[in-house]
Amino acid sequence: MCYSVRFLVPLILLALLATPGVGLAQRAYSNIGRTPSQEEIQSLGVIVDPLGKNLPPGKGTAKEGAELYAKQCAVCHGKTGEGGVADRLVMGSPGNPHQGMYTDQDRHPIGFWAYATTVWDYINRAMPANRGGSLKPDEVYALTAYLLYMNGIIQDTDVMDAQSLPKVQMPNRDNFVPAKPVWPPNPKRPSWF
Amino acid sequence: MNSKQSGRRRFLKSAALAGLAAVGAEQSVSAQQSGTNASAPGAQPGTHEHGQPARLAAPAGRAMTKTITHTTYYTPLADSVGIITPASLHFMQSHSRLPDIDPEKYSFIIHGLVERPLAFTMEDLKRLPSVSKIAFLECLGNTGPRRHVKGEGRNATPVTVQFTHGIMSCNEWGGVALSVLFKEVGLKKEASWVVAEGGDGSKYSYCVPMTKALDDCMVAYMQNGEPLRQEQGFPARLFVPGFGANHSVKWLRRLLITDEPYLTWDQSVHHAAARVDLGNKSRWFNFVWPPKSVITRPSAGLKLNAPGYYEITGLAWSGWGKVRKVEVSVDGGKSWKEAKLQDPILSMAHTRFSFDWTWDGEETVIMSRCTDDQGEVQPMLAELNRNWGRSEKDRLEPISNTHYWNAIQPWKIAKDGSITDVLFG
Asked: Nearest CA of chain A to the CA of B93: how many Å?
């Protein structure tokens, strides 16, 4: 019962905001801010959506990724994706994905991740450390393929591209709660949930 | 050598200042050099554009831990009075190098599901109507079990309130409301999430639900009345009150408006963690800090010199709203009495509480418990463990979630007056 007020207010807000007109309102300060060119927006780079609808062209395989990994990633993440100074990326092995839970300490290996598109997105924007954005799309596809392969999720011959990557079945996909992120929280849940 | 140094310093100061001010600087230098006592003449006022702490105040500084992925500064809470953290003592946690952004060249872009994408410079932001809010900011890993054991680059350091609770601060943030900015770009009907991207090396990214964004979030460029510190996202950051600090993306690069949450690594991998009560599934997209409090003084690492009067004081807060009451126990949780709440009591901000106490010299455990204005009560560790299905084994090798940790914090006072952290017994 103590949750009722908390959730009622956001719900009312939500209802108000859902009413048409918010998007159609005229600008109040039309002389402030500048319209960026399409090129300028594109130069920010892509943030990949969960279903990979905005993945750029390009492709790569685990074999190509292995070479890149050895050169660009192994120094921090370890030769085989574990035992390095940075996050462990591999649990399980080719053909044998990790079985069972991922503990709080083991939540970084690729097998834990809910979406393969997140692998591409993170490598593309954040890696290598402090040189994020320096890899080409083909390289990012190849590294993604290599890490998926090492975690036993795809075959070494699988080609990763804008079509195939979003279709990769991530083994831990259904182990996140809530299944879809929600706001405001479900009023039936206790607050500590 | 000494006189040479003194002469050189005098020259440098004189060169930088003019007229009377230079004379003041000279006096200050000579007082320092000769080791004069407290009655020595000091500096004339007006010699510093940005002031320094008093020469002899020796204010507590931040502590730091460093791993390859996390550099953390901890706020020295034990010395705090009131609710505002000096900007220089605000906590910081960063996963990559801090960008050094020229505010003259800076702009951020709002694009995605909008009628018209717009880029805003610092000048634009400052011309738009401003808002300010006093609010806490707390890393969602603050106070977790790892903070109660030695480790993470601080093996020799005892556990203090600075380490258990210091990844948290409270400032007055100033900037432009997202509701104002979003009216300018014109949200499309489907717009329901905001993906914020930072300009740091990892392009730190987090999603915020649109209803929250329009309700009370801002692009902040001021902190306690001055521009953001570099480590706080200079020149502009997102500020999301009440949510885990990770939502308040620093060095804001863009806001991408979408119709679904994006599964960024920071939010969907790094901050998703298994929970035994959920059948070992991982809780993710958890947003709000539940009610929490801690006694900042007396606290672990400090010492009571003798039996007698002590003020028990601390901080309470809730990401859901205001603090309704704080209770204090001085007998290990057997009995609780209501503490006095000091004004101001603000929504999603620290609230200072105090409690008069006379220590009889016997061993005891003191703790505080927060109830927020939704009626939610801060849990004891046993209750938190029960809720999340945690076991004792989880302490040293965390198996399940440690984020949004809000267990009641007990401090044990020994007969000799020394104080230790006894959350885990």
From this structure: 16
